Description:
Elements: H1 5-19, H2 27-36, E1 44-50, E2 56-63, E3 67-72, E4 82-86, E5 92-97, E6 101-107, E7 116-121, H3 125-142, H4 157-171, H5 180-188, H6 195-211, H7 214-232, H8 237-290, H9 293-297, H10 301-343, H11 345-352, H12 355-390, H13 394-399, H14 403-454, H15 465-506, E8 528-536, E9 542-551, H16 567-574, E10 582-587, E11 590-591, H17 597-601
Antiparallel strand pairs: 1-2, 2-3, 3-4, 5-6, 6-7, 8-9, 8-10, 10-11
Helix pairs in contact: 1-4, 6-8, 6-10, 7-8, 7-15, 8-10, 10-11, 10-12, 10-15, 12-14, 12-15, 14-15
Amino acid sequence: MPTTPAGLEREQTSIETYLNQPARLPPVLRRRIETQWSDEPVQLYALSDLDASLRFAATWIALGPTRLAIATEKKGESPGAIRSFARADVTGVRKAVGLSCTTVTLLGSPDQPPLAEWRFTHRQRRAMENLLFLLEQDLKAREGKAQGRAEPLGRDADSVYAESMAHDMKEAQAAVNANKLAVVWRLMAYLRPYRSRLALGMGAATLLTLISLVPPYLTGRLMDQVVRPYEAGTLASEAARSVAWVLVAGIAAVYIVRELFVWVRLRTLAVLGELVARDIRSQLYEHLQTLSLSYFSGKRTGSLISRVTSDTDRLWEFLAFGVVEVVLSGIMLLGLGAVLIALDWRLGLLMALPVPLLFGAIFLHGESMQRIFLRAWRKWSRVTDVLSDTIPGIRVVKAFNQEDQEKGRFNSRNRDVTEEFNNIHASWTLFWPLLMLGIHLLLIGVWVFGMPRVLGAEGSAPLTSGTFVAFLLYSGMFMGPIEIIGQTARMLNRATSSAQRIFEVLDTRPEACAQTERVKLEPVEGRVTFEHVVFSYDGVRPVLKGVSFDVRPGEMIGLVGPSGAGKTTVTNLIVRFYEPTSGTVRIDGVDLATVDAGHYRRQVGMVLQDPYLFHGTSLE
């Protein structure tokens, strides 16, 4: 499918950002080449990123209708050299593939030195193969092994180059550059249909947070108004017992009500998370049904299965609890900070001032964990890839006695994913104790600076034991939200990594099947017409070149040819699994691109080469 302007811009940005190389042939250099060619256009180009000494350099290989140019890009004001020669002068193409680079040699006359030689890293492989394919087709056409010389299929050279360079990044989920906050906001949209349930869960969590502030306050009152006066002999035993039982009963009632709110929150939000995960799974699966065969032919089955199953399952915990917990923890931190400063501003500032440093450490650790999680999910997809290959093809595995090889392949990928998850565990199990150590050091600081004041040390502001006990209890609660936010950060990294993989599928535009359809052929008479149809799976290598024929209703024809000749491709175009690159496919005189694909296919019978049986009963 041709790249849209917005898609081209994204691909070019990715190339510049992640590959650190030009996203296109520089316009000034392109104009110089076309001027040297007498305005013959550049149809295709690729970058040779190594010089003869295997040092990084920038040499562009540009291909036109009749000429080929090798242009060296110079930094600064001095223009680079451009060397051109006719495509017809090329008599041979040699490729020497090494471990880190490939060397290409273009041969000319037998008694003359090579026309050109260049080197490139494997990063440039896809773009360079497109160009070399056309040169090799030239040679086959001259030798009579191909019908006519191959040419680029009318696509813009910038689009072909950007798509080739960005292909591996997109396959490797280089969408890692997606803004994490934007991903979270997009996930929040799935909560809208369940606003009432979310409000109930949030309300229960808010009341739970507020009521949790009461026990420390009652404990402080118990110390200052009962225990201390009784020990000092200023409060009678009967009065002390009476007030103490009232305060203890109040604390007990608070804990009972607190657990009620805990139950409401857990039940409501757990169900909410499952409902949202169900909606995402349904949307993802429904969207997959709209995508064309070209999308599935470029994706591994295991990767798609893991996105519909594992990735959606990782989202429910974050959507159910992560969002609510972070919001409430933030509110609780502000509230507790105000309470601590109100109780004693000196100790309150001691607790509150280091909090931004703790959050900074959590953020930096989360950024490193994000990269590890992405690698882990990709390797998990590779494990499911083996299963999706082996289980449907188990007859082939057994027929060729390849059980041991398949076990080795699975075990290798299983070890890789285990190693990656162990890296995750090594990271967070080291960071978390260090974070908790920092939190406990703050509590020790409260004891160090608060105890002398309770004991009445000279030169220190007095502090009652009840206030100090209440401060310690609130300090313990103050650490709780920090711990929750730290745990939620890990949950966020898991969720956003999976969400990016899901959104990568959802953001893929349907090619042929889901476009707005207008024409309904009813009934289909069966006349099939191909008018100068050209088709390529990758936009460069044509499988069909200018194919034209007309089959009337009732006629029976057979397509005969070697493997790769295009027999299956013609069938795929007739049922509109793909769109032709150029030309027109007509059914009963109507352009198939304007026909309602679903309505049309219900009237077409197709016997596939490899039958597939779905599991289920006959009724299903």
